[in-house]
Amino acid sequence: MNLETLFEKIKNTRLVAASKYVDYKIIKAFYYKGITEFGENKVQALKDKKEALKDENLNIKWHFIGNLQSNKINALIKQKPILWQSCNGLKIAKAVNERLSYTLETLLEINVANEQSKSGIKPLKAVEEYLQIQEECKNLKLQGVMSMGAHSNEQRKIIESFEKTYRIYEELQKYGANICSMGMSNDFELAIKCGSNMIRLGSILFNA
């Protein structure tokens, strides 16, 4: 799929380029193709790529989309991403909140497929902990939710996982949620049909 076709498919959806496997030169090239938001899984990689591009005068908006280890909190805060997509519960939220000196926009990550290989809070706890974080972590500005689709060859199971995320998102809209981040290279079209308004694309984008 070429970029023009891809952009047409996602024209009403916010695109975050998951740049985990590409270097800063590729990021720069794609910035000039019209992509301004990039997501990194590791704090050190975010730091290195941001540093490499600092003299380029590019208005890149960095997201952190990976599992945040407690010993990397200070390092992440220093990078000032525009969105921390992978807050997986109250414990890590409190740890980040107490060290922040600015407001960090944040998504609550939900493990809707209940898979051990995935990070994220259990769906039944999502609304309760979202509201707890909102109440107790004033330096975090919750904007919505993030999830990954079920790891399955059955399209029905993937759709079910996205629909479950979207139902939680709908419930949280009255508390200010406006981002439903779901969908990656292998399932973004399903995610968009299920209500996603932000997708995280890696291989399909950089191989286009």
UniProtKB/TrEMBL annotation:
Xref: SUPFAM superfamilies: PLP-binding barrel
Cofactors: pyridoxal 5'-phosphate
InterPro entries, per database record: Ala_racemase_N, PLP-binding_barrel, PyrdxlP_homeostasis
Gene3D superfamilies listed in its UniProt record: Alanine racemase
Highest taxon, organism lineage: Bacteria
Domain Alanine racemase N-terminal: 2-206
Family: Belongs to the pyridoxal phosphate-binding protein YggS/PROSC family.
Protein name: Pyridoxal phosphate homeostasis protein
Organism: Campylobacter cuniculorum DSM 23162 = LMG 24588
